[in-house]
Specification:
The chain has 15 helices and 14 strands. It is an alpha+beta fold. The strands form three sheets. Strands 1, 2, 3, 4, 5, 8, 11, 12, 13 and 14 form a ten-stranded mixed sheet that branches. A two-stranded antiparallel sheet has the order 6-7. Strands 9-10 form a two-stranded antiparallel ribbon.
């Protein structure tokens, strides 16, 4: 049997196994995708630019990106993105995670942006001051409106152990700023001896660390709310032209689709510092995350499946990746979106997002659950969601404690269903099962 015949036979075996599970795979489309992945792997250039759509990214990301919602992504990027300042701040914003894989993961719950922010400054200290100033201005300029609400900002690193709200936070942990703390420009904590300690916003300049901003955004026309984050990878470009990451690490670009063709010059400049061995490091990091989500008591097979897909498509295990991509196209995979949107609902309900939008959102969640579940689990989830809807619409007020309980119950049952769905499917393909066993044994 030739290699070509052997590959075709393996593909047919996977398709037949999927069909026995009730997972329908369009054989022609699957083979088309496999051919595209093989061609991308054979190409020496890993950066792909779509001139017509004005997007670019790693070649395999462009294959999986669904551009139908491109204008929506750009519109939201205008809210969450860091603006350029000529000669000082240059940026390249992208979609990352499941939103950047729209042809695969059709039910993304959140919108995750990733933005490269390069600060041109005479010293590192000045670069740290500038990024702190820029982040706070962005947070305050887009603090709240009928369509968006700031949830949290990650800025700076605690250099000593502190206590906040009675909880110990160890040195080296990122500093999480609540919206009111961002606005006032400081937070109150305690030192290890219980003495009050005022942490000014400028404290973050000492070690910027993890830079990230989170919002809840209401899309009234679409009748939905969504959690939107923007993770910043901040670099300093000194007078000598050398570029240094402020957190000590320049993130790879294996999951991003950049939304602005005009930012290619910055990306090209940064790409020189992203060496080929970064791929191996990235894959190893993904394996570490898979191990974490396989641990007994912490199982999360939805997250396992997402990370396996990225591992397989990056390492040439395209047949296995093809099987997993089909799992995310099944109606039951919509529960992953429901799970994520329950968290969004929690944030939105507590923070006063437009009630009409929230009501539409929760009604759609109920419909989605009824469509893809049955039996006792369905009844429990639907009952909890209907009580939350009654509270939002004012039909029946519930206490904060009962709200939290209903959110927790809904999340628990949805997570259970998601885990069962992906666990039962991933174990069917021998190559995937063997890969998971090896990771668990390491």
């Amino acid at each position: 049997m030739s290699n070509t015949d052997k590959k075709q036979d393996e593909i047919k075996q996977i398709i037949e196994a999927a069909r026995r599970l009730g997972v329908e795979i369009d054989e022609q489309k699957a083979i088309e995708w496999l051919n595209k992945m093989a061609a991308a792997q054979a190409s020496k250039e890993d950066l792909a630019i779509d001139e017509e759509k004005g997007i670019y990214g790693h070649k395999i990301n462009i294959i999986d990106f669904d551009a139908d919602d491109l204008e929506r992504y750009r519109r939201i990027a205008n809210i969450v993105g860091i603006p350029d300042t000529e000669g000082v701040v240059e940026t390249a914003i992208s979609l990352s995670g499941s939103a950047a894989q729209g042809k695969v993961q059709r039910y993304p719950g959140d919108l995750d942006y990733f933005e490269r922010v390069n600060i041109i400054a005479p010293t590192r200290e000045e670069a740290c001051r500038i990024i702190g100033e820029v982040m706070r201005k962005k947070a305050l300029d887009y603090f709240s409106s009928p369509t968006y609400l700031l949830i949290e900002v990650k800025w700076g690193t605690f250099l000593t152990n502190v206590k906040k709200d009675g909880k110990l936070i160890k040195a080296g942990a990122p500093i999480s700023w609540a919206p009111h703390e961002v606005k006032q420009g400081y937070m109150m904590v305690e030192d290890e001896n219980g003495n009050p300690l005022k942490i000014e916003w400028s404290y973050g300049e000492k070690d910027p660390g993890w830079c990230k901003l989170d919002w809840v955004i209401a899309e009234k026309d679409a009748g939905r709310v969504v959690n939107v984050s923007n993770m910043l990878d901040v670099t300093w470009e000194g007078p000598d032209g050398k570029i240094i990451p402020l957190d000590g690490y320049l993130d790879p670009y294996f999951q991003e689709v950049y939304l602005e063709r005009e930012s290619v010059p910055l990306f090209t400049k940064l790409k020189e510092y992203l060496t080929p061995e970064k791929l191996n490091s990235y894959v190893e990091a993904l394996k570490g995350e898979v191990k974490k989500y396989l641990k007994k008591g912490h199982e999360n097979y939805g997250k396992v499946a997402k990370r396996l897909y990225n591992i397989f498509r990056l390492t040439g295990a395209h047949k296995e990746a093809m099987f997993i991509r089909e799992l995310f196209d099944e109606p039951a995979a919509a529960l992953y979106q429901v799970w994520s949107l329950i968290d969004t609902l929690d944030d939105s309900g507590k923070m006063g997002v437009d009630k009409e939008v929230l009501t539409k959102q929760i009604t759609e969640l109920i419909k989605q659950v009824i469509k893809v579940t049955e039996g006792e689990e369905e009844s429990k989830i639907v009952d909890a969601l209907m009580k939350l809807r009654d509270d939002i619409t004012g039909v029946k007020d519930i206490s904060d404690e009962e709200w939290d309980k209903l959110i927790s119950e809904s999340r628990y049952h949805v997570v259970k269903l998601v885990n069962n769905y992906f666990y039962s499917k991933l174990k069917v393909i021998p190559q995937i099962e063997e890969f998971l066993k090896q990771l668990q044994q390491e």
